[in-house]
What we know:
- By secondary structure, this protein is an alpha+beta fold.
- The protein has 7 helices and 18 strands.
- It has helices at residues 21-29, 41-51, 123-133, 135-141, 182-185, 188-198, 261-272, and strands at 32-35, 52-54, 66-69, 88-91, 103-110, 114-115, 118-122, 147-149, 155-157, 160-162, 167-170, 178-180, 200-202, 209-213, 217-221, 224-225, 229-237, 245-246.
- The strands form 5 sheets. Strands 1, 2, 3, 5, 14 and 17 form a 6-stranded antiparallel β-sheet that branches. Strands 4-15-7-13 form a 4-stranded antiparallel β-sheet.
- Helix 3 packs across helix 6.
- It is globular.
- The two termini are 28 Å apart.
Amino acid sequence: MPSTARDTGFEDVSIPPRVGPLICAQLRDRGIVTIDHLGSRSAVRGYAHRVMTLWKHPDSDKDRLTTIRDSGSRADRAGQAGFGRGELAPHTERSGIPRPPRLMMLVCLRKADAGGEVLLTDGQAVHEHLSRSAPEALEYMRRPGTAFYGGGGGHASQIFTPLLSSRVSLHLRRDQLAQFSPLIQRFLPALDEAIAAHQRAFLLEPGQGYIVDNHRYLHARAAFEGHRECVRALGEPRFSLLPGFSVGGCRLSARLGIEPVSCRSAQTAKAAGRKFPARTPQGVAR
């Protein structure tokens, strides 16, 4: 299966001696930056440390990185689907706490034998889509207390949180640890449609990855075969970053040049001689 990280138009950012202005500018403007040449766990941690103050996570190791790989039956537990081989639904990280970390970094150390495409959606594009096609749905999704994330130890929340100066933050999960008010249940199909319309897919080769604004970007994963292994870092930026994202003038993620997931998944499946599910992924990592 060929790499698509360069073919899709994402910027290829090599490891600099320090965090360069390009990375900071892209995260402020687009909410995403891609990275390459991180061939080891220590390289990933060193790079992450330059960009962010690392958070501990319930599933992270002593170095504060979380290993994402198939761990067998562990994936059957609530909130643990990321540790299997199945699909993961679009989500933001750590939605079960009131203030999730601002940045999320994921790097591939070993690619899958087949499948495992990364699926990314710009929440700014989703918000803009809903404002045009389903304004009533968007209004209800911005209301406090219409979502509950995190099971028994979770908290009341909402999908889109209005902030000052026409900015908004996004927090979402769609697994067993998420519940939604009847007020917005009927609008969830509109949300799924908006996410699918702006979802983009690409494959990661070993050493390739991305950093996203976790208050803006949804990320997901296609099902895979083999022994895919990634490492994830969460944390707060070591540079200035305004809260949330602007809703004054949305520039859609399509400008990144990545084919829609429906096209990319069909092509990669055809090349591999097998079919992948076309439906929206249903699992989500904690």
